[in-house]
Design brief:
The protein is α/β, with parallel strands linked by helices. It has a single domain, classed as Spore Coat Polysaccharide Biosynthesis Protein SpsA, Chain A, CATH 3.90.550. A seven-stranded mixed β-sheet has the order 3-2-1-4-6-5-7, with helices on both faces. The longest helix has 21 residues. The termini are far apart.
Length: about 220
């Protein structure tokens, strides 16, 4: 069984590095909610996975996910991204997951086709992985793992290198799949400028229009 797993921070503490462009914590939380909605919509529209799961401790995001039909995994309190993903991965394995595509919740340009492509890129091997890098080729924004615990996730600074090293250590073939839309994660104000260069029909674009950030 193939799952998409979306990992999301609690809205109240999300996107603090965007404070220079969005000083209001409420505006940052609203933007994080918009990005999550875009990522969730993409996951639900993908055809390769059998199910969509969400791990977070945010009540509003858990409610939204349940209403959409996604499997929800409540981490109960903020544990950090990698601990939350490990918790969720173990839960999905118990549910029969054979392959898991983990997607970060701050890549609002991602589409269902991108997720399908990530699944299809996995090497023909029982133990394998796909890594979709960030725009600067240092981070990892999407990861497909078969089996789901073939390596542990190490999202964060220079995660792409760490994930590649982990695959080598686990003797698991790994493919780097460069995808333009998932490569753009909205972490710092410069990312917002890059995102708004291309108009999109997304919750995120509409929210940035509301706060007057479409032209920097």
């Amino acid at each position: 069984m193939r799952f998409v797993l979306i990992a999301a921070k609690q809205l109240a503490i999300a996107k603090t590095r965007l404070a220079p462009a969005l000083p209001s914590a409420v505006e940052r939380a609203t933007l994080a909610d918009a990005m999550f909605r875009d990522v969730l919509a993409a996951a639900l529209s993908a055809t390769a996975p059998d199910k969509v799961a969400v791990v977070t401790c945010d009540r509003a995001l858990l409610e939204l996910s349940r209403a959409s039909g996604a499997l929800t995994i409540d981490e109960e309190f903020p544990r950090g991204l990698n601990v939350a993903v490990e918790l969720a991965t173990n839960r999905l394995i118990a549910c029969g997951a054979t392959t898991v595509c983990t997607v970060l919740s701050d890549i609002p340009m991602i589409t269902g086709a991108d997720i399908d492509r990530a699944f299809s890129a996995i090497p023909d091997h029982p133990r394998a992985a796909v890594l979709v890098p960030s725009r600067d080729f240092s981070g990892t924004n999407v990861m497909v793992r078969r089996p789901p615990d073939v390596i542990q996730t190490q999202f964060g600074h220079l995660s792409l290198v760490r994930h590649l090293e982990a695959c080598r250590a686990a003797d698991a073939p790994c493919r780097i799949e460069r995808l333009v839309r998932p490569a753009l994660d909205l972490d710092v104000p410069e990312d917002l400028l890059e995102f708004t260069r291309t108009p999109t029909i997304t919750h995120t674009y509409r929210q940035l229009a509301r706060v007057g950030l479409l032209h920097g």
